Amino acid sequence: MSLHARKWVPYIALLAAAFAFGLVMFGAFVRLSNAGLSCPDWPTCYGQATWPRHAQAVARADAAFPDRPYEADKAWREQVHRMLAGTLGLLVLVLALLAARRDRLTVGAIVLSAIFATVGVTLYLHGERNWSSGLGLLAILLPMMGASWLREHAAFKVSVLALAVIVFQAMLGMWTVTLLLKPIVVMGHLLGGMTTFGLLAYVALRLNGVGAADNRHARLRRAVVLGIVLLALQIALGGWTSANYAALACGTDFPTCLGQWAPPTDFHQGFVLWREIGVNYEGGVLDMAARSAIQITHRIGALVVFCYLTWLSYRLVRAGFRFGGLAVLVVLLLQIGLGISNVRFGLPLPVATLHNGGAALLLFTLLANFVRLQPWRELPDASA
Fold first, then answer.
1. Which of 187, 188, 215, 355 is the most exposed place for a label (fewest CB within 10 A)?
2. Distances (CA, A) of 184 to 191, 245, 274, 275
3. pTM (global) more than 0.90
4. What pLDDT shows up at residue 211?
């Protein structure tokens, strides 16, 4: 690859990050509209590359999957989501190859990863589940090793690492279907999407010239890192709430729950991460006390994150990063408002979808501040 090709990396990273944000939003729309199992097979939909659209195809689909009657208004959502995820995978593959182009060993690892992932999907379609899983594991490990071999700008390493995450994310998408919306997998799939977006956003910011002249704000940067960690835990709690259908466990009451400050709860059952295989988790399997425990925990987490990020916003403004600090505060207030609206208005689909997008946007504002506080290092050959 030429030097000219390397100059495209910042723009491809920016495109991939924007695409990943849109995919997070669309994935939330699919999940919240109860379309997660609308295609009972993977990566096809009722055996088709797209989805059944004609009467004969629909009849064949219903005959092949009698336990999952075809629903046209849902199946297209799930399959379009998979197609968009595949497009993002190709973008990340190109980004990784361009970022690693000076290291032949890493390029080889990336190419092998892509081959193994493709062959793994083919074997899965032919029923070879064990071989498919083994090749999927190799497709994840190879770019991870390739990233560790690179001796370049950290953003290039993260570009390669993002490929490993996107392959693992594809496997989580497969398990979401095959394990019938198992909560730990659904939560992991949400976290994988957010992680993919976060890594690509970091690369896009870093390669497009965002950074500090020196390291004078190291302590503030560590405070931002803690904010990212707290937000990640809260996103995980949000994913667990959604995966267990606990968003309305407290009814439409806020700040109380079912008209009480201390309703019946079952925290033990609410946070059993691994449950039996073979159960269809669509609609949830927990009783109201367990779901209430999850919802209350999510609210407490939101309060902790709100207090910390409000303080962090103040610190950023005081340190001279007025725009960055205010951006965190504005998005935080928007996200809290969307969360309360979800409860008060009975989880309307547009608001619930925007709540997922708000979490991603809040993550972006924190990452932007982190990169802004990180000392800048010139790219090896991206300058004119």
1. 215
2. 10, 13, 7, 9
3. yes
4. 79
pLDDT score, position 377: 67
Asked, as a colleague might, if the bond just before 43 is cis with ω within 30 of 0, I would say yes
Nearest of 205, 165, 188, 257 to residue 17 by alpha carbon: 205
Terminal Cα distance for the chain, rounded = 16
Residues 229 and 364 in one domain: yes
**Domain ranges, residue 247:** 214-384
Q: Say how many domains are in the chain.
A: 2
Write down the catalytic residue from 78, 152, 282, 378: 78
Q: Which of 161, 188, 208 is the last residue of a domain?
A: 208
128 in active site: no
Say which residue the tokens 């998005």 belong to.
331
pLDDT at 135: 96
Contact 81, 26 (CB under 8 A): yes
- What parts of the chain have a pLDDT lower than 70? 1-6, 377-384
Residue type, 132: S
pLDDT at 188: 96
Asked which of 190, 208, 226 is the last residue of a domain, the reply is 208
Whether residue 318 contacts residue 329, with contact meaning beta carbons closer than 8 Å, is answered with no
CA dist 256 to 253, 263, 293, 340, Å? 6, 9, 13, 12
Residue 207 is encoded by which pair of tokens?
């390669």
* pLDDT the model gives residue 4: 45
Residues 328, 362 contacting (CB under 8 angstroms): yes
pLDDT computed for residue 378 by the predictor: 56
